Amino acid sequence: MSQSEKSWVYRFSLVMLLITSIPYAAGYWLQGSNWQFTGFFIGVEDGNSYLAKMLIGSAGEWLFRTPYTAYPQTGFLAFLPYLLLGKLAAAPGLHDQLAVLFQGFRWAGGFLMILATYQWLAFFVEYPRLRRLGTALGVAGGGLGWLAFAGLQPVWGERIPLEMYSPETFGFLSLFTLPHLALGRALLLWGLLAYWQGYRAAVSRRRMLGNGMLWLGLGLMQPLTVLIGWMLLGLDLMVRFVLFRMGRKQNIQWKMGLVNGAVMVACSAPLVAYTAFSFLSDPFLKIWSQQNIILSPPPIDYFLAYGLILPFLFFGARRVWHEGRPEGLVLIAWVLLLPVLAYFPYNLQRRLPEGLWLALLAIAMVGLGLLRPRWARAGRWLLISSFVMTVVLFAGSLMSVFQVRSPVYRPVDEVNAFQYLSALPARFPVVLAAYDTSNALPAWAPAHTLIGHGPESIYLKEIQPRVEAFFQSETAATVRTALINEFHIQYVVWGPAERDMGSWDPAESPQLTRIYQNTTYQIFEVK
């Protein structure tokens, strides 16, 4: 990278991060005396869970125990970046501090993802203008999803385009809302580049250890992505072995490259092994894993997602194949494995194509560089049309922010009730509330709820009907008492969401004592 290229990356990163900050800033500007901004407008339920993780870090925890269940937990080394960020915040104004820290993490992760994307493309693409286009596509590009808004929604049926919900398929959602995935992608790419560098030049032991730390950090962001990195190292070794057997002996430092890769695997393996062992042996994590289902859509959705770059992919793959660089052949193999990765029989299969978008772009930019100037200009305009879906997604986010209502905003009365709970002496008390209330509550107060988050609230399908029945007038008192005793419930929140479940008034129960009340919310303590 030349100095001018670095300057472009810095400017582009600043522009992208400022643009993606507009909806967040608008949310805080629009909140008022009746509503308070949650800090999120896409995936608000998950957003609340990230602030909840930061909050338990602020409360002194070092191991993750989800606040969205009342079942016993031993603690698990996960979501460490969020736990550590939470330790930088303290009352008063805790929620706002956590939201600001989240934005700082988003800026850092987003910048590093953009920088790594450019460096990745620079490794394969000769011309700086194509590197810049590829970087823009890598972090803000999409596919043909915009056709769903142009009258072709029947092609997707009841589904929505991948650009709108799959951060691993493209890059914008990670930049926009998921900093740990953005940073994870950067670490994955840097690790691969560092591994390949080991075959080209001598690498010191200290540098090898540093390379291993890249994927150890990746494991802290997203352990599953480390397995993708290992797969790519395996593909690379297979490609080099085949080339060697074909007599194409390249001037490479085999020993140095292999040792470098072995150190990277050794550094990242303990955390991956710990994660796998925990999910196989811990009863709580087993159930969480069973509920955490992220399946891939039908193949047509991937075709529509990547359809724009297919023509350039064809020309680029031919050039990469004829050049015979091991790294380029690994890219081709990675792309060909898309169906295997996307439909591997695993409950998180949609996560497995992580980073593949950048392999596609690297080959496509090589193909674009082969075209004659007239066709290259037309090709660039065709690829620029992939930003349409990103504009649609951004506009939709702004529309969500400008509609001041739940779940993007929470009623101030509810927030005041949450803050009252956070000031109580009980440490992580179990609080009973409706699903919507239970999702937001742990982001404002260190407490456990019975429900509130799809994957993390174990036995959600069985417990949610019992919670709803608790607030219904026809439910017997013995049934309520059984729920209270089973989960050691200490407090009950009664607000609009709870009233909508039935006409029962908790004040009528001799087992409950009202300890807080404002215009719309009440909190009861279990005697």
In short, what is this structure?
The protein is mostly helical and 527 residues long. Helices cover 61% and strands 5% of the residues.
SSE arrangement:
Elements: H1 3-30, E1 35-37, H2 44-58, H3 80-86, H4 94-124, H5 128-140, H6 172-177, H7 179-197, H8 205-221, H9 223-245, H10 254-281, H11 283-291, H12 299-306, H13 310-323, H14 326-336, H15 338-342, H16 356-369, H17 373-384, H18 387-402, E2 409-411, H19 412-422, E3 430-432, H20 435-444, E4 448-449, H21 460-470, H22 477-487, E5 491-494, H23 496-499, E6 512-517, E7 522-526
Parallel strand pairs: 3-4, 3-5
Antiparallel strand pairs: 1-2, 5-7, 6-7
Helix pairs in contact: 1-4, 1-18, 2-3, 2-20, 4-5, 4-7, 4-16, 5-16, 7-8, 7-9, 7-10, 8-9, 8-10, 9-10, 9-14, 10-11, 13-16, 14-16
